[in-house]
Structure formats: structure tokens, C-alpha cells
Write a structure and sequence with these properties.
By secondary structure, the chain is an all-alpha fold. It contains eight helices and no strands. Helices cover about 80% and strands about 0% of the residues.
Length: about 170
């Protein structure tokens, strides 16, 4: 049963639509297409229409954002489950030769990381992991370790020179 206060819904639609779109994109990152985004935002408004006394809620903006987050997360879960169902079973898609190559490559990567861990200071190795293994941006690294982005740039430049020297000696 729909409980509709048309004027109120129109008011929040006009005032909050862009915020909902932005929040929905933020919650589901880049894994959403335009149609799914529209569906999520429409779902939020359908839920709002069914909510009793929403016009008396002390923080409508917050309620809308939280609802958008929940709807977005649900969509993300559904998409992941659907993708998993559509994936071929491992036995069918596994190529034994490629599997051996992958294992060998993983072992080489482990050896290389062990070598780096021996040659680098702990802070340098941690910086290497953040940049080259976790693929974080310099800005995110700066925020994470609590220094300025420029300092991260300098540290990475020095680290890259040190890595070059290590690799030349191999």
C-alpha cells in the first residue's frame, strides 16, 4: 500500500535528486551503469513514498542518503551473485599448462618480494606495497600515512632510484 504525500515527495525529489545520484555512484563506485543508477534512485523514492511520516523525520537528507546506500549495496550484491552464477566452473575453464605458469609466476613474485624486503628499510617496503601491490594513488598514500602528497612523491622517487639500483645488481 502506497502512502503518498505528493507535495512532500516532489519537494524532496527536486531538492535531493542530485545528492542521491552522487551518493549512489559513490556507494557502488564504477560498477554501475546508467540504467542501474536510475533504478537505484527510483527505488529510493519508491521507499520514501511508502514510508509513514517521512515528512516529520528530523534528518530527511540523512535518511535518503542511508537508503540510497542500502539500495546500492543490495544492487551490488545482486550483480555479484548474478556474475558468479554466470561464471564457468573452475574445472571447465582451467588450463593445466596455464595453471603451472601462474604458480611459477607467483613463486617468482614471492622471491622478488622477499628480496626487496631484505634490501629495503621497513618504511620503504611498506611504501612499495602501498604503491605497487595495493595500487594506491599518491594522494591516498599521503592520507593513509599522514604526510603531504609532495612528501610521498619525493619518497617514491627515492624508492624508485633504490629499486633501480637493486635490479641492476641482480
Amino acid at each position: 500500500m502506497l502512502i503518498i504525500n505528493k507535495e512532500f515527495i516532489e519537494k524532496i525529489y527536486q531538492g535531493e535528486y542530485l545528492n542521491l545520484v552522487i551518493n549512489t555512484i559513490k556507494y557502488v563506485a564504477r560498477s554501475i551503469n546508467t540504467n542501474d543508477l536510475k533504478d537505484c534512485v527510483s527505488e529510493v523514492y519508491l521507499i520514501a513514498m511508502q514510508k509513514k511520516n517521512l515528512d516529520k523525520h528530523p534528518n530527511i537528507h540523512g535518511w535518503l542518503c542511508e537508503t540510497a546506500k542500502n539500495v546500492s549495496k543490495d544492487l551490488k550484491k545482486k550483480k555479484a551473485a548474478q556474475k558468479k552464477r554466470n561464471a564457468a566452473p573452475f574445472e571447465e575453464s582451467a588450463d593445466p599448462v596455464k595453471s603451472e605458469e601462474v604458480i611459477e609466476k607467483q613463486e617468482q613474485e614471492k622471491e622478488f618480494l622477499n628480496l626487496l624486503e631484505e634490501k629495503l628499510k621497513p618504511q620503504e617496503f611498506a611504501l612499495y606495497e602501498l604503491k605497487h601491490i595495493k595500487h594506491l594513488s599518491n594522494e591516498k598514500i599521503a592520507v593513509l600515512i599522514g604526510i603531504k602528497k609532495h612528501s610521498v612523491d619525493v619518497k617514491l622517487t627515492r624508492l624508485n632510484k633504490k629499486l633501480k639500483n637493486i635490479l641492476e645488481k641482480l
